[in-house]
Design a protein that fits this description.
Elements: H1 2-5, E1 8-19, E2 22-33, E3 37-41, H2 48-55, E4 63-68, E5 71-72, H3 77-83, E6 84-87, H4 99-109, H5 114-127, H6 143-155, E7 161-165, H7 173-186, E8 191-195, H8 199-205, E9 208-213, E10 216-222, H9 223-227, H10 233-246
Helix pairs in contact: 4-5
């Protein structure tokens, strides 16, 4: 399989998604190897979430292919899904359940054996700082705690690939710091694609930037290249994402 042969864990090739004449994304291509944290940037409506949903198999592409660890996300759905931990934007949770009961249920649904599941539950409870609310109904938790439950479910089965849509959304500064530290640590051995609107977060956790604007990739380079000679990532973001409108 092409992705695994090249050592790429995430491989998007010519992805397109059309809604009638409207192109949500068009000819989106990039590959990410094991052990790399790549930030996926772009203005609202640029196509970030659409691309992530296609990569995880939650949405079908109009054209192109998406592979995870060499497995086509549609032709080899189960194999690809086993490799992915996905944190969607505003991901759905069962509000009447507790973090403990939800994560146990999800682990069992993924086929984790009792001993492994117990170990992984302890791990995510610690890493996502959920021990204090472990037995509290999710519906009574703050947005920040719900986000941490979402992160916990993404990590639960120890996936090789993490696709995270706004992972620090709703978190306070201390929680943001903890999640960034967690992502940095996980990035030593896992492949991570994270979407964020916070440019400071890019510099904190990523080594690479993939920038999308109006459904097309406009930059795929290092964080240093995104900052430019002026060391002003914010200014370069605006310049690159406004280029078409200005022209």
């Amino acid at each position: 399989m092409a992705g695994s042969e090249k050592g790429q864990m995430i491989d998007a090739s010519g992805l397109c998604k059309y809604y009638g004449p409207f192109a949500a994304i068009e000819n989106v291509s990039f590959s990410i190897p094991k052990g790399q944290v790549a930030a996926f940037l772009g203005p609202n409506g640029a196509g970030k979430s659409t691309t992530m949903k296609i990569l995880t198999g939650f949405m079908a592409a109009t054209a192109g292919t998406a592979r995870i660890g060499g497995f086509d996300v549609y032709a080899d759905r189960i194999e690809a899904a086993n490799l992915i931990g996905y944190l969607p934007e505003n991901g759905p949770l069962y509000l009447e359940m507790t973090p403990a009961s939800l994560l146990k249920y999800l682990g069992e649904a993924r086929g984790l054996k009792a001993g492994t599941l117990s170990t992984r539950l302890d791990y995510v409870a610690d890493k996502c700082s959920l021990k204090g609310v472990w037995g509290k109904a999710i519906g009574k938790l703050s947005r920040g705690f719900r986000q941490r439950v979402g992160m916990a479910q993404a990590l639960l089965h120890d996936p090789q690939v993490l696709i995270l849509d706004e992972p620090t959304s709703g978190l306070d500064p201390n929680q943001v710091h903890d999640v960034r530290e967690l992502i940095r640590g996980l990035g030593q051995t896992k492949t991570i694609l994270l979407s964020t609107h916070i440019l400071q977060e890019v510099k904190a956790v990523a080594s690479r930037v993939i920038l999308i604007s109006e459904g097309r990739i406009v930059l795929d380079d290092t964080v240093a290249a995104m900052e430019g000679q002026e060391h002003d990532m914010d200014a370069n973001f605006r310049k690159l994402t406004r280029r078409k409108a200005a022209g």
